[in-house]
Structure formats: structure tokens, C-alpha cells
Amino acid sequence: MKTKLAVVLLFSGSLVYGQQQTKTLTTNAGAPVADNQDSLTTGNDGPVLLQDLHLIDKLQTFDRERIPERVVHARGVGAHGFFVSYGDESQYTKADFLNAKDKQTPVFVRFSTVMNPTGSAETGTRDPRGFAVKFYTQQGNYDIVGINQPVFFIRDAIKFPDFVHAMKPSPVTNRQDQTRQWDFLSLEKESTNMMTYMYLDSGTPLNNRQMDGWGVHAFRWVNAQGKVVYVKYKWTSMQGYLNTNPRTLAAALLKDPQEATDDLYREIGKGNFPSWELSVQIATPEQLAKLDFDPFDDTKIWPESIFPQTKIGKMTLNKMPDNYFQDTEQAAFAPGNLVPGIEPSPDRMLQGRLFSYLDTQRYRIGPNFQQLPINRPISPVNSYNQNGHMDTRETHGDYNYQPNRAQNTMGENPAFDYSPVELGATTVHQPIRIKDEYRQAGELYRSASKADQDDLIANLVHDLSQVTNPDITLEMVSHFYKADKQYGTRVAEGLHIDVQQVVERAAKL
Ligand code: HEM
Fold first, then answer.
1. Which residues contact 6 (CB under 8 A, 6 or more apart)?
2. Which of 88, 136, 87 is nearest to 108 (CA)?
3. Domain limits of the chain?
4. For 188, 193, 254, 432, which has the most beta carbons within 10 A of its beta carbon?
5. Portion of the chain with pLDDT greater than 70, in percent
6. Secondary structure string (H, E, C) spanning 186-223
């Protein structure tokens, strides 16, 4: 007899190893497990038997625990909560969840860093923070998949894979490399505005509760009469703002490299529920047509002096997931999850994103990812789509096609069609008409306080001084110079670059 049997107790009809228990372990197939401590062997000294089905079941399950991490935004933290609308927005949109005052809609939110893998540090990472919100509305899931910055680096989805390749670790060394990153960015003038946002201290938030979020793109809101306006979304933190800066970074990193995750578990655990107000900038098509820049260029903001923020509701996060993998890891946010009354704008990044997320999620999670509890709409899903890995959707007897002669059959409803867009254009491969690469970056620099400008310069000099190719540095500094002469001059001086060289390069840009 083995010595362990000395501590075996009989409890509730089950054998117990050294502890009390109320339930018998089972295999995945529900059969009771006799021994979870020792494999079944051929005698004490012999090999393990293939017929130890519990061992095989356990190892096979373990061997398949990982799914691919998100290709970007791999490290994240999620929370459940609810959104309450402040008023009735039906004059602008027929979106159901915005059509009455005090209407409550459940949400799931995931905050993330972008370029680093799961398990990487969050504190001090100069990276946008993902700010993705899934609204479980009565007419399907609506996702605002935004970030903590109002603009983006590039404006056309065709460049996104190149952008990510340059920002991610080198394919040779598997290390992120400032030279590769700035090589790409310096050749993409449009990134000047975003890089200015990124290198302000707000580019390194300390946690997720104390930061704002933006939808970045413009979206089309359509009311029941078919009238169209365009909107941009902003989430304003009711907790204020907290960033690291060059003086606090080292201590913050030492204290907790994953403070953003820990902070959310800690504060929500204490019942200190964070909230954000959602506001929109609303613009008519006629107002947008008069702007001297492209309103659908995601490297630009819409000035609040022309388009003020209108508050439309408040989101509160009040529960951390019971299981990280099932909720946070398997959550599938997509800009293509739209509801009646909210439609895409022609923003070229948004258009690419409409496709990319729902595509990657079929690969990352599996073809029926929308049936998982975290992704499943609370409104009915009526479709004749079928089968694929892990299908559990409702079926409709013999009818898996449409049209059909079934009683209470399902069919389309033209009332939910996209609003018509008049185009009358010829297909082209061309950049947007008005690029205006530098103006907003200059305005942003000039609007920053002296202290923020000083940190912006220090942050840029810190990273640009690691670039090994001087031509890349010169080109990038020249972009900052084009945005604002003082801005470029200060970065040049910090890097000990001859300002005259910068002036000459800037003249050629
Ligand atoms: C064409 C440009 C873009 C493409 C192709 C793209 C693609 C992707 C992909 C493939 C994922 C992983 C999704 C998943 O596995 O579930 C992702 C995640 C994400 N992206 Fe993008 N992205 C683009 C631009 C942007 C922009 C402009 C923003 C912000 C305005 C953004 C915000 C996010 C966020 C927040 C997540 C994480 C969502 C989550 O928490 O699960 N992306 N993106």
C-alpha cells in the first residue's frame, strides 16, 4: 500500500487526498476520476499506460490551452459595466440604445497596450492604449474600438501591416528597434501629429482608469428620416488623468510594471467603480465640406472650437471578469459591429478595420467566436448561417436556406438598410486630396504648457538618440520643424544636430 493512503479520508462518498472535498473530479466527458496524483503505471517501476484516460485527457487539454494572442493589443485588461444615456438622440440617430433618457445598456470594456506581447510591462510603455467598448444593445452589439489618443499614426489601412511590422520587434533580433520604428515614421509625414501626442507625457498613462478615450474615426449617424450627421466619440475619465513623466517613470516601473491591470482589479474590487462620460462632436455634411482639411483623415482632430463636445451618456465599470481567458482574452471587438443608425464614414483606415477584426477573430478564436458568452448579443440572432467548429447556435429544423415556406419564417427588413451615399466617382489609387501634414502638430505643440513642451522634447530626444541612422533622425526632426520652428529647433538642439541642416531638409519636405 502507498504511504499516501495514510492521509486519505472518506468524505461525502469521495476519496480525498489530504484535504476535504465535496465533489468528485471528472474527466472532460464527466466520468469520475479515481486518481489525480499518480499516473497509472505497469507496476511501481514500469512505464505509464496509455489507458490512463484521465492523464491523457488532462495533458491533451493542457496542450491546447493557448490561442494566438491578438496580432496587436495583446496585453489587456477587461471589465464589465453599464452605459446610461443622458438623453434621447433620435433627432440624430435611430440607434436604439441612445433613444431614451436613462436607458441602460450592459457593456464590456478592454484596455490594452498595442505593440507588446501578453505579459509585457504596461507602466511607462509609450504606446497608445486600446480603449474598446462593446455595447450589448437590443439591436445587436455595437463596438467603439478606440484608443487613448484623438488621432492615429497613418491614414490608410493599406499601410497598417507595414506600420505594425516597423513598430514590433525586428524579424532578425526579436527586439523592438528605434531605428526601424523611426525609419518608417520619418517616411510617413502624416505621423507627425500622432507622434507629438505620443511623446507628450499623456503618451504614458499610469493606469486605465485615469485616461480618456477617443473613437478616432468619424462615423455616420442616421436618424429615422434618413438625415445624416457625422460624429466623433470621446470618453472623458471622471477620475482625472495620471501619467508617468521623465521624473516619475523609474520609480513607477520599480513599484509595479503592470500597474494598469492591478489598478483596475484593485479599485473595482474595493467598490471604487470608475466611470467615463461619452461625448460626441456632431457635424453636418455641409459643415465638413467647408473644412480646409479632410474630415475623414484619422490623423486629424476636428477642432472643438468649431465642433464642441456634446455629452450623451456615462459608462461605469463595476465588475471584473470571473475568468480572464473566457471574457477578456476571448472578447472580440470590431469596428464592423455596427447597429442601425450608426454607419461607417469613408475614413480609409476605418474601412480597412471594418474587414480586419472580424477576419482575425475567426482565426484567433475560431469561426463561431460570436457564440461565446462574452461576444454573444443579448438581442436574438436569427440567421441561417450554420456549422463550423464548435457550433451551438439555434437551428431551424429543415430550413437552413432563405427564402423558404416555413411558418414564422425569417426575412430581411429594408428599413435597416444603410443610408444611401451619392458617389459618382471613378476608381483610383490616389492619396487623399488635402494632406495638411503639419498644421495640427504645430498647434498641439503651441497649445502645450511650457512644462509639457519641455517633457515632450526630453521624451523625443531620449528615443531619437537611439536611432543609429543619422538621416532618419534628421528627416524626423525636420518634420517637427515643419510643424513648428521652435519645436524642431529644440529637438535638434537636444540631439546636437545642426539646425541649419534641419532648415534645409525641411525646405525639401
Ligand atoms: C487599418 C488599420 C487597423 C487594422 C487593420 C487593425 C487591426 C487590428 C487587429 C487585427 C486587432 C486584433 C483584434 C483581435 O484579435 O481581436 C486589433 C486590435 C485593436 N485595435 Fe486595431 N487595427 C487598425 C487600426 C486601429 C485604430 C486606428 C485603432 C484606434 C482608433 C485601433 C484600435 C484597436 C484596439 C483598441 C484593439 C484591441 C481590441 C481589444 O481590446 O480586443 N486599431 N486591431
1. none
2. 136
3. 3-63, 76-371, 439-508
4. 193
5. 96
6. HCCHHHHHHHHHHHCHHHCECCCCCCCEECCCCEEEEC
Summarize pLDDT for 443-473 with one digit per residue, the tens: 999 999 999 999 999 999 999 999 999 999 9
SS3 content of the chain, % helix, strand, coil (to 5): 30, 20, 50
Grid-cell match 513599484, residue found: 255
Residue 128: is the preceding peptide bond cis (ω within 30°)?
no
Q: What is the mean pLDDT of residues 74-91?
A: 98
354 lines ligand 1 (CB under 6 A): no
Q: What CA–CA distance (Å, rounded) separates 233 from 309? A: 9
State whether residue 16 is helix, strand or coil: strand
Q: Determine the topology of domain 76-371 in CATH.
A: Catalase HpII,  Chain A, domain 1 (2.40.180)
Here the cell at position 267 is: 479599485
Q: Mean pLDDT across the stretch 102-122?
A: 98
| Structure confidence by residue, pLDDT tens digits, 492-502 | 999 999 999 99
Q: Is the CB of 332 under 6 A from ligand 1?
A: yes
pLDDT the model gives residue 20: 73
On the CB side of 102, CA atoms within 13 Å amount to 0
Show the CA angle centred on residue 391, arms to residues 385 and 396, nearest 5°: 50
- Residue with the three cell numbers 493599406: 158
Strand pairing report for 14-17 and 228-237: unpaired
Q: Which amino acid is at 32?
A: P
CATH fold label, 3-63: Cytochrome C Oxidase; Chain J (4.10.91)
The whole-angstrom separation of Cα 221 and Cα 251 is 45
Ligand 1 atom closest to the Cα of residue 359 is 10
> What HEC string does 377-392 produce?
CCCCCCCCCCCCCCCC
Distance (angstroms) between ligand 1 centre and the Cα of 203 equals: 18
Residues 6+ apart with CB under 8 A from 145: 130, 132, 133, 333, 334, 335, 353, 357
Judge whether residue 163 has pLDDT over 80: yes
Q: From 69, 72, 261, 360, give the residue whose CB has the most ligand 1 atoms within 8 Å, as the site to mutate.
A: 72
Q: Output the CA torsion sign for 70, 72, 75, 76.
A: negative
* 357 assigned binding-site residue: yes
Looking at this protein, which amino acid is placed at residue 65? Answer: E
